[in-house]
């Protein structure tokens, strides 16, 4: 069995204020640093052989904390970044965005991401994220665990696509800061022993 653990970064001041971050390079706040310190021993206890991370500060700082406890060096990869949400959305709350850019906000609510200047669509994110995820999955040997540190929205889109699941809609909830997903590559009794990646846990957190 191989295992992938996909961890969302710790909290930032913009998370706390409900301001959209996208590619804005916002560092962890004090609580985010505490969350990263708390989750690091749980990640290290899984005996990972590698820690891969988005290069944005909030993820890289979380990954550095995890990697230090696990005795590893994190590998940064820009393909694991959050959605680029465009210049008009970045830094604003939903209410501020609706007031400042009502037409864009309406397009976003309607799912018309392609009509929003500078914003990545789901397909754009999957085009960069899935090859990274697949390469790291392939790099693991039997019995090994790898940890990927990334971002809530990107993970919510990429993980179901990686597993070949139909659009889960709201069935998979929002990941908490330093909440994680566990995937296992193992034989399935439901498919006659076929070996495949499967979802084991979603939004697991330190108690």
């Amino acid at each position: 069995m191989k295992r992938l653990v996909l961890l969302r970064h710790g909290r930032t001041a913009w998370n706390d204020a409900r301001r959209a971050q996208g590619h804005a390079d916002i560092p962890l706040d004090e609580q985010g640093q505490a969350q990263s310190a708390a989750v690091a021993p749980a990640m290290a206890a899984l005996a990972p052989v590698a820690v891969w991370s988005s290069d944005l500060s909030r993820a890289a700082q979380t990954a550095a904390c995890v990697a230090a406890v696990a005795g590893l060096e994190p590998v940064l990869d820009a393909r694991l970044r959050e959605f680029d949400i465009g210049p008009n959305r970045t830094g604003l709350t939903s209410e501020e965005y609706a007031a400042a850019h009502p037409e864009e906000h309406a397009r976003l609510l309607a799912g018309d991401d392609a009509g929003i200047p500078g914003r990545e669509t789901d397909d754009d994110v999957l085009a960069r994220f899935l090859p990274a995820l697949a390469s790291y999955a392939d790099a693991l040997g039997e019995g090994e665990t790898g940890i990927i540190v990334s971002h809530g929205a990107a993970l919510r889109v990429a993980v179901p696509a990686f597993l070949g699941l139909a659009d889960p809609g709201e069935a998979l909830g929002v990941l908490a800061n330093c909440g994680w997903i566990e995937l296992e590559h193992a034989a399935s009794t439901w498919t006659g022993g076929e070996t495949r990646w499967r979802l084991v846990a979603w939004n697991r957190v330190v108690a």
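Strands lie at 2-8, 50-53, 75-76, 145-150, 180-187, 195-204. The CA atoms of residues 114 and 135 lie 28 Å apart.
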